[in-house]
């Protein structure tokens, strides 16, 4: 599990047990990844559609899931693992924090628990190739996404305009999970903003 981290995110490299212990108000922790392709004139984001047999059937989201205290050494290790499990892609660099979402999850067995989810913009190895000593983007639709079929049934590389339309109108292409379990749609748009800001500085 080899990846680099933007310096301003170094705090998230502390041991996961220490990170969790500092937040006793939460019983569960999750992570989310926003992956972009830069091969086209405008960035595209990887969205996964939840399986019809899973919770929130048919909704679109980025890769992500729960932290595993027994095996994940850091929160960012959780992020890298979940990204690989849900998309088949290997995180190479963690660029920026997009959002921290908090909500209550109701379980039949032991009532409600408080969850905190940390979502990041990341780069993946499969989206870039070395050419003449420089990193060049792989064509978007050649990036080898591999889904976990029990969780997601298809994927798309979405344009910002299509996400905006889906937020503003029921006729849009994508339906997102309810805000009660994290603000997926606003977070996706914020991820686009962060990527655009980064590109403008380069």
TrEMBL record:
Signal sequence coordinates: none
Nudix hydrolase domain location: 26-180
Pfam family of the protein (one): NUDIX
Annotated protein name in UniProt: Nudix hydrolase domain-containing protein
PROSITE patterns for the chain: NUDIX (PS51462)
């Amino acid at each position: 599990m080899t990846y680099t981290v933007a310096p301003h995110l170094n705090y998230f490299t502390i041991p996961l047990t220490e990170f969790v212990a500092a937040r006793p108000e939460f019983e569960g922790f999750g992570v989310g990844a926003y992956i972009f392709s830069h091969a086209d004139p405008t960035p595209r984001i990887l969205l996964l559609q939840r399986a019809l047999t899973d919770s929130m059937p048919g909704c679109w989201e980025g890769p992500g899931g729960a932290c595993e205290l027994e095996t994940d050494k850091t929160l960012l290790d959780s992020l890298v693992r979940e990204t690989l499990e849900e998309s088949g892609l290997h995180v190479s660099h963690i660029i920026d924090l997009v959002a921290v979402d908090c909500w209550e999850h109701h379980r039949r067995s032991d009532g409600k628990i408080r969850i905190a989810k940390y979502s990041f913009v990341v780069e993946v190895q499969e989206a870039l190739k070395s050419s003449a000593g420089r990193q060049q983007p792989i064509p978007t639709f050649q990036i080898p996404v591999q889904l976990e079929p029990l969780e997601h049934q298809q994927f798309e590389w979405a344009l910002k305009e299509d996400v905006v339309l889906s937020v503003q109108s029921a006729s849009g292409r994508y339906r997102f999970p309810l805000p009660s379990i994290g603000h997926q749609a606003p977070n996706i748009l914020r991820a686009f903003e962060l990527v655009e800001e980064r590109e403008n500085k380069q």
